[in-house]
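To whoever picks this up:

The nightly regression suite flagged NADP-dependent succinic semialdehyde dehydrogenase as changed. Nothing in the input moved, so I suspect the structure step. Input below, exactly as stored in the fixture:
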Amino acid sequence: MSIATVDPATGELIRRYDHLTAEQVEAALAASAAAFTRLRATGYVERARWLRAAADLLDAERDDIAATMTLEMGKPLAAARAEAAKCAIACRHYADHAASYLADEPLPDPSEVGAVAAYARYRPLGPVLAVMPWNFPLWQVIRFAAPALMAGNTGLLKHASNVPATALYLGGLFTRAGFPAGAFQTLLVGADAVEGILADPRVRAATLTGSETAGRSVAAFAGRHLKKTVLELGGSDPFVVMPSADLDRAARTAVTSRCQNNGQSCIAAKRFIVHADVHEPFLAAFVAGMRALRMGDPADEATQIGPLATASGRAEVAAQVADALAHGAIAHCGAVTPGGPGWFYPPTVLTDVTPTMRLWSEEVFGPVAAVHRVHSDAEALALANASAFGLGASVWTTDPAEQDRFAAELDAGAVFVNGMTTSFPQLPFGGVKNSGYGRELGAHGIREFCNLTTVWAGR
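Regenerated output under the current build:
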């Protein structure tokens, strides 16, 4: 597959990029290893100064990088600016907190193990390969890069092939901010180069955000070479609405959650599981909200829904909807692929989705919602957990007992009560089941790519 910028709003080719040669990849690996030697010798204060400088660059260049993201993958411009701002916040968070997150952990009573002192110490692993997706082309990378660099690791970015300009921006960001040359580099290579890079002994670990198929592949490559991986894969997140919920707020949030990033988000709500007592009013408000969204040019400030990022992505969403309709699902809005240029698909709400349909078990990566009717919290939990995925979940109820039960029994890496599933630099993020393993963000995320060294000291 070629590396190119193609405007998803028009389908027009903007620019092609050459793959790196084998010699250029080798030079990058050598530079990463050399930079690791230098970076690990620095302290948190120096790294924090550089990371804050990167945050300042992200703030100063927000409009430019937002326009690049919008051009490359169709994200509405306001959302692109918000993504860049969130990246700056994450950089400052790790600049402020990395030292405490990675502080030595002493054994309270070292005499229990016959020592004067005994503690666990976090040390960096080395160069880490990051295989990243196009849907949040800045945020997905920064949420790995900021903690990895603060821990003293170096990064090698293999970004998605349809966001090369964003990838190149990231490749230069940290060097411009003061990090040693080679500390973070973009590799414009195809997917077929990943195995060879992972096999290189200088690369110590890998992280991937992407499809289940890609995750299995990278995990297998890494496993053959005994290298750690962190995987954040797909999601088919449930959004549960119980009778005590604030229906107006739940319906408004449901629209935002399903259609954020043009519906192309792993943690977007996709399955709306609604108690029968409030099913009809929720459905009416939800459909009205979906219909009201303005779809159009993502560079237009008024646009709320832009195009899907790729032609193949839109074709897949349309095929999933067509399959559901053919098997008896009912469309309440959308469900028709528009004509004209660009890869647009309208906000769509379906009911009567059954296990015979692809939408029942597959993740749909576009603004398509399936609304289900249930009659109890037990039925809601069973349906919510009847998925191979387990990334996030949102539950709407003001009943404390229901809140506790859903938080305890939902199979998900995150449960949001009366709120939309999202990510914060302060909180660990990741999934269970086929949504992957390991965690990003928070204290847990920065520790993933560290060697936890046990230190025992006698007299």
